[in-house]
Amino acid sequence: METTGKTVNELPSWNNGEAKTRILNFVKNATDSASKSYIPPAERIAVFDNDGTLWNEAPMLFQLNFTFDRIKNLAPQHPEWKTQQPFKAILENDRETMKKFSHKELGLLLAASHTGISPEEFKAAATQWFDTAQHPVYKRLYTKCVYQPQLELLNYLRENGFKNYIVSGGGVDFMRAFAEKTYGIPPEQIIGTSSKTKLETKAGKAVLEKTPELQSFDDRAEKVSNINLHIGRRPVLACGNSDGDLNMLQYTAGSATPNLVILIHHDDSEREMAYEKHPVMGELKEGLTEAKARNWILVSMKNDWKKVFPE
Amino acid sequence: METTGKTVNELPSWNNGEAKTRILNFVKNATDSASKSYIPPAERIAVFDNDGTLWNEAPMLFQLNFTFDRIKNLAPQHPEWKTQQPFKAILENDRETMKKFSHKELGLLLAASHTGISPEEFKAAATQWFDTAQHPVYKRLYTKCVYQPQLELLNYLRENGFKNYIVSGGGVDFMRAFAEKTYGIPPEQIIGTSSKTKLETKAGKAVLEKTPELQSFDDRAEKVSNINLHIGRRPVLACGNSDGDLNMLQYTAGSATPNLVILIHHDDSEREMAYEKHPVMGELKEGLTEAKARNWILVSMKNDWKKVFPE
Ligand SMILES: [Ca+2]
Ligand SMILES: [Ca+2]
């Protein structure tokens, strides 16, 4: 009988209750070769959304904060931005204009801040930002705005032979800059929104350059297509927080093997945010209905988590 | 000091010589934390081309044999194929017409044989073919037309903490049907040519369908872009056999960390095939020049390998 799980102090930041019990039972059965819900190690694929699932996304997606900060950093090399929208608004901290940015304007900002450089150069810029920038509300590094209970879940799964993947609408290179250190998830287990790269030769060396051309917008059904493209197996565990994750959750639930589907519900207006009161955040409507109909685990951040953020 | 390598009987089907010695030295240093050529485990990424690098590709790419066989299998459901090219030529085994298939005609055959079904259904069809079909020249299963010395190299690398990836122009779903069993390479470490998938609901379950729309033709510079997209790290070892691999080899050689680049040279007309004499196979011209100029390992199948195929 193969059992690799630890037996004490599992998921310490999770309150006792249905969510914790079902997660622990699922993993204990998955790793117990005598159980009819045993899952061979190679098939223990777990997929997690990132924004709002593993870390905070309020009041604004962290990658947008990064984008605006990077535009400010690059401004000295672009004197024309002083008079050019959408750049001007950022340099002047003109919040009214920023709130009304169109998709096209956001695209221009993303292109200016994320492309024209190699993935390695971008990673260095993002890493520097993660090492220094502070979240405007929580006044701490963005990498400290991750959810402590989820860090424990990732670790618990890994210790039990699961391979954790991120499958997120966030930029893949942006996530790769912090996820290995923060989540213990290596770059090859991160799937995200991506732009195309082109190969060039510089000083006799082959280097890639990030281009503005979209490769994949990793949301909704595209999450499932990318899981198939990158992983080639149906996951046995999926965790998300919005209707953008619904296809991925349904796909996981459709597996012939035992599976576990988890929805994180932002209902904690004191320690974090209750999304029903905040129309900008990732919408969770269909997902709530389906979670109840299909008996998925609905995690109440307010009731199921002892704490939200790490100390 | 971390040393995980075995010390006896490494690469038994490789003759002693420069190629074997350099591979063994690279791996011994990579795994010796006291060496200045040490490579941390997380960075030990090795990428291999497949056709002509890990298995035979002569006289025709195996995937084409599969394609033609599958067209024959599907023919009863498509009576119109009896009079319709390019299908007619395959059903009549009309080799003269088959030799002249255009890219468009090959595209029609690939679409008819590879799409309109789920990745799982495709995998089942390919697995059945791998379990039964015989190579026309070697009269053995296609999965027994792999190169024994390369199986040993993959295993040796894996035992020393390397993560082996396939990065091939072959279809990703086709390779996933045999590579785990044959090479010990799981689906999530296979990068190949892919078509787009679309998500559908069948009997209340989320299922993917393979469509004929090309997602990525994984050759030349696209191999490098896909390495970045899927792995997100520059490999430290790359192995190929044709100019289609050259970009991937150059990219690996451009790493700041120690790296090893290996080219397999088909120079064994007795036991396999000498490609200079065969214009259809993967061309190796620029690669040969560059291998010499950059001191890459050029593996002579004739001289460096004790045997070509497994018993
Ligand atoms: Ca989310
Ligand atoms: Ca090849």
TrEMBL record, chains A, B:
Which Pfam families would you find in this protein's record?
Answer: HAD
Q: GO MF terms on file? A: hydrolase activity
Q: Which UniProt keywords apply?
A: Hydrolase, Magnesium, Metal-binding
The highest taxon in the source lineage is: Bacteria
- Which InterPro entries does the UniProt record give? HAD-like_SerB, HAD-like_sf, HAD_sf
Q: Please list every transmembrane segment annotated in the UniProt record, as residue ranges.
A: none
| This protein's name | HAD family hydrolase
Please name the source species: Adhaeribacter terreus
